[in-house]
């Protein structure tokens, strides 16, 4: 058994180490950088299996450290019933990056809208939650001098209105990128024929799943998405709960 430790900066040393090894099975947690190393090690002739961190944790025998984590991964990767994460291609990771940046921008806009509504409510101005009504309300507020707002607050609303417009423009750019990916991808076009699936959902599914052959049937795919009730059953008594909100994260809204 070989034990060798590498730091994050020793990328070339890691590649040389595995290049000099005979073909073997390599297990890794599906964390940051794992998909990159899966491609590199596969090109070197090794078999790579990525495991979700939650499936590795039960095999950690004592305190958590790098050595014990590595042993746990070795133990988990050899289990015949273990479920693995299919490595993502560079194209999948690129589409995933587009969705993650867009999701962050949308979250920033939601926080900004909530802040604007909260600040205005302190001055007795209540605007409905609909974002289009907020835009219209802001346009009226910044151009009206007879609503009782101080000039300082009105100036702040002008700045927030500009910030909101900038976020709208940036989100629109990513929406156009997603539509372009959807238009040029044959797999996305096939998914788009299903009722209720548009460019955002189709491209997010392709980025997350890629190779559909890793699922035996539609039920496995639905369970992987999280479209199953949470279960806490014991002693023959079945207890089912609601579906987690994490199940819709794949849609990247």
Strand proportion, as a percent range, falls in: under 5%
What spatial form do the alpha-carbon principal axes imply? elongated
Radius of gyration: 25 Å
The helix/strand order is: HEHEHHHHHHHH
Strand order of the largest sheet: 1-2
Domains (count): 3
Show unreliable segments.
245-253
Distance between the termini: 46 Å
* Tally of strands: 2
Number of distinct helices:
10
Structural class: mainly alpha
Q: State the helical fraction.
A: 40-55%
Largest sheet: 2 strands, parallel
Mean pLDDT: 85
What tags apply to this protein structure?
253 residues; 10 helices; 55% helix; 3 domains; 4% strand
Task: Tell me what you see in this structure.
- The chain is mainly alpha-helical and 253 residues long.
- The protein has ten helices and two strands; from the N terminus they run αβαβαααααααα.
- The protein has three domains: 11-77, no CATH class; 90-214; 216-253, no CATH class.
- Helix content is 55%, strand content 4%.
- It starts with 10 loop residues before the first helix and ends in a 28-residue tail after the last helix.
- Mean pLDDT is 85; it is low at 245-253.
Describe the secondary-structure layout.
Blueprint: H1 11-19, E1 25-29, H2 34-43, E2 47-51, H3 53-56, H4 66-77, H5 90-121, H6 131-142, H7 151-184, H8 186-192, H9 199-208, H10 218-225
Parallel strand pairs: 1-2
